[in-house]
Amino acid sequence: DAGVIQSPRHEVTEMGQEVTLRCKPISGHDYLFWYRQTMMRGLELLIYFNNNVPIDDSGMPEDRFSAKMPNASFSTLKIQPSEPRDSAVYFCASSYMRLVGPGELFFGEGSRLTVL
Amino acid sequence: AQTVTQSQPEMSVQEAETVTLSCTYDTSESDYYLFWYKQPPSRQMILVIRQEAYKQQNATENRFSVNFQKAAKSFSLKISDSQLGDAAMYFCDTGANSKLTFGKGITLSVRP
Predict the structure, then answer these.
(1) Contact B47/A104, CB-based, under 8 Å?
(2) Would you state the pLDDT for residue B96?
């Protein structure tokens, strides 16, 4: 089975440009998570969805960030306008319901974003 | 809210030796899972081991085992017979109440 698929793997853009990161979760999983990883802040949860519905977006840094999940097989994380401090590796992960919440996470390979 | 603490940012182990990575957490949930993930330099995160909080028995997966102390809210990972391929960043995570919370991670180096 295919794992979580993220695109692009690498993105270099200039400050002020719009960036869209994409994620295809594992088929049958009903949770989807977006994380950001930097050296300074470690791994941060930005937002997660359950059955395509955003459940918690308290980790989204500011209004420049938005995430959507129009269907069970696709999600986007958009940054508009981008800033140099947004440079990071963005991970998407999916999971399925276990007992009282999501089980283990299956991560994509990440999208490395560099904003100049 | 759930919190996870990994107080050792870096650890080192000699190849073939045993190392223990520590993790403490705080949650108000009674039923939850605990996970250890590994992130090698290639950066993709993979699951190492999973523990269900309602189980008394500590989880074991080949060379990896956990020491789960529910009352103390402690969840350490023991790696036996360390191999060069174990060098990575390790994250402890709790999945309580649909809110997965990661620790800061521990960077493990393995000396040949």
Answers:
(1) yes
(2) 60
Q: Which residues of chain B does A89 touch, with a Cβ-Cβ cutoff of 8 Å?
A: 43
Question: Distance (Å, rounded) from C-alpha B90 to C-alpha B85?
Answer: 13
- Cβ pair A31, A102 in contact under 8 A: yes
Burial bucket for residue B1 (CB in 10 Å: 0-12, 13-18, 19+): exposed
Omega within 30 of 0 (cis) for the link into A81:
yes
* Pairing between β-strand A74-79 and β-strand A88-95 as defined by DSSP bridges: unpaired
With an 8 Å Cβ cutoff, are B45 and A93 in contact?
Answer: yes
At CA B109, angle to CA A45 and CA B22, rounded to 5?
A: 55
Search chain A and give the residue with CA nearest B42: A109
> What single-letter DSSP state applies at residue B96?
G
Residue range A34-91, pLDDT digits in tens: 999 998 888 888 999 999 999 989 889 889 999 999 999 999 999 999 999 999 999 9
Task: Count Cα atoms within 13 angstroms, Cβ side, for B67.
Answer: 12
